[in-house]
Amino acid sequence: MITCYFSADGQLIQLEPSTDTLTIAYKATAPEKDLEKLIRDDDRLAQFIRSRELTERNLVLYKRSETASGSLADFARRVSQSDLVAYVCPIYFRGRTPLVVSDELIVAFHPDMMPAEIAELNRICQATILAAIDFAPNTFLLRVLEPGWHNTLNAANLFFHSGRVAYAEPNFISVPTPKFVTNDPLFANQWHLTRIQAEAAWDITRGDPNVVVAIIDDGVDLDHEDFASPGKIVAGIDLVGGDNNPRPGPGDDHGTAVAGVAVADGHNNIGVSGIAPNCRLMVIRLTGTGMSNLTEAQAFRFAADNGAAVINNSWGPTDGGGPAPLPGIVRAAIDHAVTNDRNGRGCVVLFAAGNGNEHISAPATLDGYASYQRVVAVAAVNNRNVRSGYSDFGPEVDICAPSDGTSAQPLLWSGYPPDGSTLAIFTTDRMGANGYNPPTSGIDPAGAALNYTGTFGGTSSASPLAAGLAALIISIAPDLTEAQVRYALEATADKVDAANTDPVGQYQANGHSQWYGYGRINALNAVRGARSSVPQNDQIESLTITLRRVSGNRFVSDEVIQAIDARQRRNPVGQQAFMRSGPDGFLRVELGNRFAEANVDS
User: Fold this and answer.
1) Is 174 a catalytic residue?
2) Known catalytic residue: 184?
3) I want to staple 358 with a disulfide (CB 3.0 to 4.6 A). Which of 147, 224, 365, 545 is the partner?
4) Does 336 participate in catalysis according to the annotation?
5) Residue 565 included in any domain
6) Tell me: the pLDDT tens digits for 392-442?
């Protein structure tokens, strides 16, 4: 099966056939009713895709749904038998760019090729001339006589290997990549997702169902309409009630809101969306009467040993309650999760930094949980892109994420510094009259969102947002270790409030702020960075990459434009230069001059 061609400079270009979209070329313009009749037997069709460029060539793109049965090739073979159809061809991806390969190719013959020689080579390669290209000598637009699944690519390669052409390339038709737009009716209220570029990240991944996010909290409404997708809920545990039913008890309103921020079902025409809507949910009911050091430890052990990749903790010591060191048994359980589970790659454990406007590692206000070096501590930043007035701080803060602020909900955050905020967080609430509804402020559209709340916030909301992003990173690159996922979160974060000169809050030379950590999470950059990571010691040749300086000689790659594995490359030209990835899976270089960004072509 031919899935490559040679570019005009002789480089072998690999293409990846789409698994869900194909091109059908009709012999003439096909009426809509004929199109529908043709695919009537395929009840999993998702959509038609048309454009002027396609219509002029009698081409229509068909995209099948994720639940389609049977292979795309089998579907193509059935459709090809129709008298209406000229040929069928898959959509190809060159990198991330989708391309249509029609029955046309462009061939530049060597200058000394005579018309008779060109005609003979066209006969051998089964192509005919459609038009001469007047601005390029001895160059023609050709049509393949028997186009099909890969025949145009095959013809281009036959011309190239003849040695009698300067180049032979398919006349690619680019397909604008459709931007994912969720249909959740309350998504417009979820400003926090737009702020971290979640929609753009969803064009890359909306999460892998194999990635499980554990929510250690009070009970979660497992019967909520936005946790109802098939297989969404994995087995959890109630360490308060001593059974396997972690649904809410009296007053358990917190956990449902937390879980929704991370993994509420998305694009289901219902309610809201979590940041990782396709990932699954494990609930561990822990917080409440009778919570002990041992049950805290058991919560981490259960999550890690039962398949959780990410463990979120929107709980911790009482704000303003004095020093609270991390119990040794809890530390041991966290160490176990971070070190041993997820097939040895380690679970990512996140903690809300806290809501006391206090230092998390100072002796008098020690939060031994959030300040522990093996967890990701998440602070809060409001919709004005400055620190939420309640958010705890300290050198152990790793990142921050959007949440409400003290000015947005002055009754809730009475006594804390005003921060200019105007918005809180929209997320899931317990179904019906239970939970945070009816609202105590004017933020919720009462009645329209009875099963949701627009009044959630605190670092309790910031932490699951970051946890969901960690799940997206693992969805893209499941081989990344816990340390690599942490690095991806930090290195791709946005430096909000970068101009602040507060002695505590300002960013230091290493890019860290005690208020914001390494910055506010950026979902698009994080999943891009995860996708551009490569296994340690993998050898890469002919690499074009953008590296962004993080600190010192540390760089992060936001995007790999082209990378060809040296073991697969054919006909290498020039000197081969190899690069190896660093121990965290991200490419590294050392440069003599200091600058913020470099395009490196090796």
Assistant:
1) no
2) no
3) 365
4) no
5) yes
6) 999 999 999 999 999 999 999 999 999 999 999 999 999 988 888 754 444
